[in-house]
Amino acid sequence: MAYGGGVFAISYPLAKALDKMQHRNRGPTHQITRCALASMFTNNQRQEERTGKYGTPRVQYLQELVTQFQNASNEESKEKIVANLANFAYDPFNYTFLRQLNVLELFLDCITEPNERLVEFGIGGICNSCADPANAAVVTQCGGIPLVIQCLSSPVRNTVNYALGALYYLCNELNKEDILKPEVVDVIKRYAASSISVSFSNLAHAFLDKHVSELN
């Protein structure tokens, strides 16, 4: 996810689901393979190659970003830092660090802010990170599900996209009663039928296919 832009990373299962939706809607299709997705991610060897022998370790760099956010005195600085953290949140190499440094809680705090940019980047970070079950569990345990659901009503398109993607990952047997409430499913069904945004429709269809069709 890039600051000023609006890009979120997706797991292989969601990539397959979206590709299915795109074929259904006869829209542009994109071949997404495990190999292509794997090339986006970091491992210890790639991390050493990128930083060099004396480079800053990833966990230290992320800690510095968290500290900068905590000490930031203006909204624009906070927006840039959260966008940067959200950009790191898609990579499984960073998942343990995100939990260790309480970055997921930082993302959730941003969702409660009146600043729509902080909300957008906060929910983007949640969407990027909660493909991992351990991260999703932290979000759920910290009361994040109602915060993600409220993002479905945002006037910011990216925020809605990220919320739909996050709910796709978060919904499971333990919390489906909190997510699959009639009023929430109704909102997602409206997005699925929407002609306003193909991404809204595709993400909503992917969610409904995975989590709602199995209930019928």
TrEMBL record:
Transmembrane parts of this sequence: none
Keywords, alphabetical: Repeat
Keyword Acyltransferase tagged: no
SUPFAM superfamilies (alphabetical): ARM repeat (SSF48371)
Signal peptide boundaries: none
InterPro entries in the cross-refs: ARM-like (IPR011989), ARM-type_fold (IPR016024), Armadillo (IPR000225), ARMC7 (IPR042462)
Protein name: ARM repeat superfamily protein
Lineage: Eukaryota, Viridiplantae, Streptophyta, Embryophyta, Tracheophyta
